[in-house]
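Board notes (copied after class):
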Amino acid sequence: MKYVYKNNEIQVINEEGLKVGRANIPFEDDETINVTSVFIDPSLRGGGEASKLMNEVYDFAKEQGLRVINTCPYAVAWFKRHKDKHDVLAIIDNEETSDL
């Protein structure tokens, strides 16, 4: 799989050149992206592709010096499981994410 940043998305491109997944990551401001949704083609689910995609989101944010907000339930759950990736998270104040 190949990952491409395009139009506020990180796209998952398969060997045939087809888009088979994406993470929507629009900018909230110059320094912050919001993971609004994560989608993987149903034929690829259960194989860890969504987690690999979230790693790409993390790497993109880290490389670009960006902070991350999560409004996508999958992204919230992924960051809860990957406490070592919290260095990119925006300041956490609200009750919903305070246990990250």
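Comment from the instructor: Residues 2-88 form a domain with the Aminopeptidase fold (CATH 3.40.630.30). The chain is about 25% helix and 30% strand.
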